[in-house]
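**Fold in tokens:**
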Amino acid sequence: MLAAEHIAVSPAATIVIHNVWSVNQGDYRDMAKQSDVLKEMSSSIAKMYAKRMGCTLEEAQAAMDEETYYSADQAVEAGIADEKSFEVVKTPIQMMASMDQAFSSDKIAKLKNFMKAQIKNETNNSQEFKLDSEQYQGITDRLDQLISFESEEPNEEPVAKKSNNSADKPLKNQKFKPLFLGGIK
């Protein structure tokens, strides 16, 4: 986070600053060496926090030693972040859950054909919006993927033993996979 020139934090975020930590094994010499490495790394990060927050190195190191938590407002006030990325919406958001795609295959095919025509007519300046060929291709590929998932049967594998743990059972509806695993390019 400290490598960014401008830091915008979600209003729901919590930022914690702490010392560098690791897992190590070995004898007392290995542990002593690892301790020295961790102290040096934490010191380097404390210097970055001190510069960003406009405080002394000792103050930054003390905050890291205490494992200090900051809300979004506190992070902006402390200088860790420059701003909150957006304000919390005051009006309720209405959502609808569905097991089906938002658009039918027919609508997706029509959109895809429209996009193909746009690719061919990229030099036509009469369009109100412009997407480059790569953007059109990314959307087209995603639409193809959605159409192919609509026609596939769910991929169910037999469960070796009876279990009450839902993580041991196969997914029943593979239509959710494209929504979470790839996104539109």
